[in-house]
Amino acid sequence: METIAIWLAGTTASGVIQKTLWVIPVMQTIHILGVAMVFSSVVMIELRVLGITGSQTIEQTAHRFVPWIFGGVVVLALTGSVLIIGEPQRSLPSYEFQMKMLYLAVAIAFTIAFAQTVRHHALVWETAGGTSGRKAAARTVVNGLALVAFLAWSMVVVYGRWIAYTVVH
Fold it and tell me: CB-based contacts of 31: which residues, under 8 Å, 6+ apart?
């Protein structure tokens, strides 16, 4: 990664971003707002899955918040790319950055799995009577997917913040 970071730091795009004083602070601000958008949507889904909120069905909650998660991911990818191009040697070789990317992949995969499972099993989740085996299995799967997604998104936030406080040698 160090080789890629050195090469990227020497590109015209990196130079322009570094010389334009407002780009990095504006991208960081938008990036942080994107993190807030994604994480608040994840928290809202998790609260519904745990039964803490209940004004909407799981399907309605997922339908309402999953698009915000993926819209936020697009914002994060765009702003994050600018930040990496502008300061590649700060992020690319960093253990924290690499862990953030690993957890991001896990978070996205489990969020997709959660959304797909809710879409295919929402009726079972909401209307199956009592503690039927099918309802219990669907609830266990949805709870597990949502919990792993929540933990992974939490680690993305933690490692993302650590990037700012570490120095790559």
Answer: 75, 76, 79, 80, 83
